[in-house]
Every structure is written in C-alpha cells, then in structure tokens.
Amino acid sequence: MPEAAVLAAFRYIHHSVLWICCKKSYQNVIYLCALILSFMRGQRIFNEYIKDNESNKAIVKGRNNKLVTKRNECLVARYYYYGHYKKMFYEEIIRQLVGEFFIAPNTIVNIIQENTDQLQFIKLKPLPLYYFQNHWPHFKW
Questions:
Q1: Where are the alpha helices (DSSP H) in the chain?
Q2: Which of 19-23, 31-35, 105-109, 129-133 has the highest mean pLDDT?
Q3: Which of residues 14, 35, 57 is at a domain's end?
Q4: What is the pLDDT of residues 115-133, one digit of tens each?
Q5: Integer Cα distance of 107 and 60 in angstroms
Q6: Is residue 109, in this structure, part of any structural domain at all?
Q7: Which of 12, 48, 93, 127 has a beta carbon 3.0–4.6 Å from 82's, enabling a disulfide?
Q8: Which domain covers residue 22, as residue numbers?
C-alpha cells in the first residue's frame, strides 16, 4: 500500500520535492502522500458538489419521452389494426401486444387508456392499411 501511495505522489508532485523527502525518511514520504491524497479527495468533493453543481443538473437520466411517445403511438396503432383488420378479441390483442412490445398486460391497458384520443382519431378517420405500413414498416401489417 505505501508503494501505491508513492506512485500516486509521483504524478502530482515535482520529482525533486519527492527526492528530498525520500532522502530524509520513508515516513515523510508516507505522510506527504497521505496529505496529497487527502487534498485531492477534498478537491474532488469540492468539484463534484459545489463547483459543478449546475452542470450536473443538466444531465437527465431515464427514459426518453419522445421514444416512449413513439412506442405508445405504434402500440395503439397495432391495437386498432388487430381489432379492426384482423377481427381479434380483446384478450387475444393484449396477448399479441405483450409478445410484440415486451410490456406487461396491465401496462398495455394503461397505455391504451391514456391514448384514447389517438384511438378515436384513427376510428373517426379510417386510415387505410398502407398508412400503417408506411409509418411502421418493421411490422407485418
């Protein structure tokens, strides 16, 4: 462990200062390395929590809302397709969507309920099958 501290000190201290400490005693090198490492640790804490606090707030982690919206639009379109064109029953449609989107059945039902306006738009303005094929070509319509 002291050797690792000495190697770390070589990165942050001028060579001549370390050479002088080595001539005096090995204990001085250990003390100097501990002092430097504690200073570096304090500097890291300062930079993380005080100085760069504004830049850390800009990073948003989690799901991308645009991609979730696109997925939900596709899911509602598939729901309409299976019900209108394939004449499937409700349970069959939910089971099919679970297999396609890898989402729990309850989540699929919630997504459909949250997007009833899109479902009403599709129902009131009957869209031809090629509309779905052009928007989501990776699915077999």
A1: 2-12, 15-24, 26-46, 53-57, 65-84, 90-101, 105-114, 116-124, 129-135
A2: 105-109
A3: 57
A4: 999 999 988 987 888 888 9
A5: 24
A6: yes
A7: 93
A8: 2-57
Q: Can you read off the two tokens belonging to residue 138?
A: 């990776």
Same domain, 92 and 114: yes
Could you tell me if 15 and 23 are in contact, meaning their C-beta atoms sit under 8 angstroms apart?
Answer: no
Residue 78 shares a structural domain with residue 123:
yes
Max CA pair span of the chain = 89
Instruction: Work out how many domains the chain is built from and give that number.
Output: 2
What lies within 8 Å, CB to CB, of 122 at 6+ separation is 76, 77, 80
Asked if the structure places residue 8 within a domain, the reply is yes
Whole-prediction pTM value?
0.57
**CA 139 to centroid of chain Cα atoms:** 26
Sequence-distant (6+) residues with CB within 8 A of 37 are 5, 8
Distance between CA atoms of 81 and 95, rounded to whole angstroms? 14
In whole angstroms, what is the distance from residue 119 CA to residue 13 CA? 67
